[in-house]
Design brief:
The chain is α/β, with parallel strands linked by helices and about 250 residues long. A 6-stranded antiparallel β-sheet has the order 4-3-6-1-2-5. The chain has a 5-stranded parallel β-sheet with strand order 9-8-7-10-11, with helices on both faces. The protein is globular, with a radius of gyration of 18 Å. Bound molecules: flavin-adenine dinucleotide. This is Oxidoreductase. Its cofactor is FAD.
């Protein structure tokens, strides 16, 4: 991130929806135009603020799904049933509509293309969002750093960026993608549905001796379980970076 970007990070900016894509029946990607956007690193997030006509405001955090691209940022929102903000951003928020955005936020859960260590990404559900930004940043930088992604989803229909991930796993040398399904597996899948356990991380991750940088993102319980597994397998806790998608209302 450019140094000049830092002073503007906590400024609220008015963004407008440029385009939107449906990822799954319950998730939508928003491409926002944010004039004056200072740039960001893969893994960072923004605060989004909505203001009603009567002045009531609601603010939530959302990870940025793609590397810096001028004034554009991409977010992918999962609908939380009965939620205040996410259903609005998925079902109501339309092209050209304004929303306030502040960021980028976060300096620890980031991957820089200059990094030389292998990378393990472990995503639970919408936790794929900042990890996808890292996969895309790797591609954009032409990096050959070995990346492994373990992506836990409920069912095959819940995979975000499914076509792109298939393409990248085929075309991006050194990127391996493995799925773990918790409720329903694709036809012919070798394993029954299950939550990620030691065997998944051991088989599809990196040995600790290779000193990988590990990034774990998803619901709080998922993140804590996976981080514990990584440490139990011998990974240095300082190399296990976590991002919890807990409620952020305020
Ligand atoms: C750093 C960070 C990055 C995030 N990035 C993303 C992202 O990229 N995509 C995304 O979809 N979400 C992301 N979130 C979660 C997001 O900030 C909101 O919490 C989520 O959209 C729900 O907001 P809501 O207003 O719809 O629900 P609320 O009205 O806040 O909550 C409704 C109900 O759902 C529960 N709830 C709220 N949030 C969650 C949650 N995340 N998981 C399970 N239950 C919840 C609440 O406790 C409450 O009972 C991120 C959170 C953090 C902290």
């Amino acid at each position: 991130m450019a140094r000049a970007a830092v002073p503007g990070r906590l400024t609220w900016r008015v963004a407008k929806l440029a385009e939107a894509r449906t990822e799954t029946p319950t998730a939508r990607t928003l491409v926002l135009d944010v004039p004056g956007w200072p740039g960001h690193l893969a893994g960072q997030h923004v605060d989004v603020r909505l203001t009603a006509e009567d002045g009531y405001t609601a603010q939530r955090s959302y990870s940025i799904a793609a590397p810096a691209d001028g004034d554009r940022i991409e977010l992918t929102i999962q609908a939380v049933p009965e939620g205040e903000v996410s259903p609005y951003l998925i079902d109501v928020y339309g092209t050209g509509d304004p929303v306030e955005v502040r960021g980028p936020v976060g300096g620890w859960f980031v991957w820089r293309p200059t990094s030389m260590d292998p990378v393990l990404l472990v995503a639970g559900g919408s936790g794929i969002v900042p990890l996808m930004a890292m996969i895309r940043a790797r591609r954009a930088a032409g990096s050959r750093i070995p990346f492994r992604l373990i992506y836990s989803v409920r069912t095959p229909g819940d995979v975000y960026y499914a076509d792109e991930l298939r393409r990248r796993a085929r075309d991006d040398a050194g990127l391996d993608v493995t799925y773990a399904y918790t409720r329903e597996v694709p036809e012919g899948w070798p394993n029954p549905p299950h939550r990620i356990g030691v065997a998944d991380v051991n088989t599809n991750g990196w040995p600790p001796a290779l000193t990988p940088d590990c990034y774990v993102c998803g619901p709080t319980g998922f993140v804590e379980a996976v981080a514990d597994i990584l440490v139990a397998l011998g990974h240095d806790p300082r190399r296990v970076r976590t991002e919890r998608f807990g409620p952020t209302g305020g």
